[in-house]
Write a structure and sequence with these properties.
single chain, 104 residues, Arc Repressor Mutant, subunit A, two-stranded antiparallel ribbon
């Protein structure tokens, strides 16, 4: 079994998620405020890092490959967990949640 090195930018996964959800590179570029060539480049970088194709191009946009569908579900869940962690941190920081200790 080959060991994959994960030394690439988390933003590549954000681009991957956005393209997968919009099914369109141009729409993803608009949502992320970056150029369409930059989106294509990031997808290519992620494909190279993972060693496989992520999308099929169609007349209506793009479609996930079967392998990428599984990756999408894992990455989406991971980003959801990160979002929950950020929310908990913010709530604790803003004293909206957490515990208060009074020492005497």
């Amino acid at each position: 079994m080959n060991k994959i090195q994960y030394n690439f930018d988390l933003n590549l996964y954000k681009v991957f998620l956005t393209v997968a959800e919009t099914k369109n590179i141009s729409k993803a570029a608009e949502l992320l405020y970056i150029s369409q060539p930059a989106i294509s480049y990031d997808i290519k970088m992620l494909e190279n890092a993972l060693g496989g194709k992520l999308f099929y191009r169609t007349s209506k946009g793009v479609q996930l490959t079967p392998e990428a569908e599984k990756l999408y579900n894992a990455v989406r869940n991971s980003f959801n967990v990160l979002s929950i962690g950020e929310r908990i941190f913010t709530e604790d920081r803003d004293l909206e949640n957490g515990e208060l200790f009074i020492r005497m």
